[in-house]
User: Which sequence fits this backbone?
């Protein structure tokens, strides 16, 4: 099993444990691949829900650039909702899981089916 496959399995388990949902493995795999090498770095692989700069990065680099959304789509509220769902007290919010949850929140799965 490759390192990426191990991480995807870990992300799926995290979704099951912390959110109580069974992950769409195809979408989770595509979102993880889309994160590129950031999933391998300790700091880059997680998102700090309390860091304004980190949340701005999620908004600008993922929601606006990748998913093609705009401010009028309620981006801040969606990020807050996902952080709440993932667990505010949970310090290790995996970037791939946050992006997966945001993709599902905005029903943008089709972007990964190209």
Assistant:
């Amino acid at each position: 099993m490759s390192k990426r496959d191990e991480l995807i399995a870990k992300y799926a388990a995290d979704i099951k444990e912390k959110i109580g949902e069974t992950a769409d493995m195809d979408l989770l795999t595509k979102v993880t691949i889309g994160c590129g090498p950031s999933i391998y770095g300790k700091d880059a692989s997680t998102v700090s829900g309390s860091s304004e700069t980190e949340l701005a990065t999620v908004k600008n680099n993922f929601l606006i650039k990748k998913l093609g959304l705009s401010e009028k789509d309620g981006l801040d509220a969606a990020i807050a909702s996902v952080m709440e769902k993932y667990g505010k007290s949970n310090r290790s919010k995996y970037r791939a899981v946050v992006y997966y949850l945001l993709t599902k929140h905005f029903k943008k799965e089709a972007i990964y089916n190209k």
